[in-house]
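quick one: 2'-deoxycytidine-5'-monophosphate bound model?
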Amino acid sequence: MKDFIVTLDGPAGVGKSSLAQALAQKLNIPYMDSGAMFRILAYEIGPESLEMSDSQLESELENFHFSIQGTGQNSQMCNNGRQFGAEIRSEEIANLASKLAVKPVVRSFLRNAQRAVGKQTALVCEGRDMGTVIFPHAGCKFFLDATPEERARRRSRQLESMGIAADYSTILDQILSRDAKDRNRKESPLRPARDAVLIDTTERTVEEVLELLSTHINHLLERRSHKQ
Ligand code: DC
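yep, here:
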């Protein structure tokens, strides 16, 4: 089980975080929120990161040391041992993270950091390129999607539950513009891995999707144990 990696990729607001956390809880392994790593960089370095040369950015990145504390629902992405909360969840930080995410120096730094975490423990990880680039040999890959309107509704509810003001039409615009950036960038664009299971979550509840994912993983784990 130590080498078992489950990847969940998909666009913003599709529900990856809740599903990855719930799945990690069921499997009793850590959950890696790769988007949080981009958000932490955006939050800590700030908008001036977009003006920096590659070598300036590289030297900034040397100050970051990511690790995961806890397992399942309690998994926390930390930088230098520090946890982050609502301060990295605003749409402003999400947009800056999305702009930083097109930079090859940033992606290469986080690629190494993410793989280093995956070497130490079994993981459920979620993001945009977990199954395609970061863990191409992962034991189990999923790609989740939903219409932009449904994702904007989910993101508004999630922000409101965290006490962050959310306007549906602004969020929908931001989701559409972030989708375009994430899907069309040169470096690690958002797309399903060839061997990923595709799930349209638009008409499904979190519980229904979780059931689908769990059933699939249980089949895989059974097959693995027969082979061993
Ligand atoms: O999943 P999220 O909304 O927290 O991600 C924030 C931004 O980070 C998103 O717009 C794109 C980027 N990202 C990425 O490029 N690759 C990942 N594996 C995760 C996030």
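The two ends are 12 Å apart (CA to CA).
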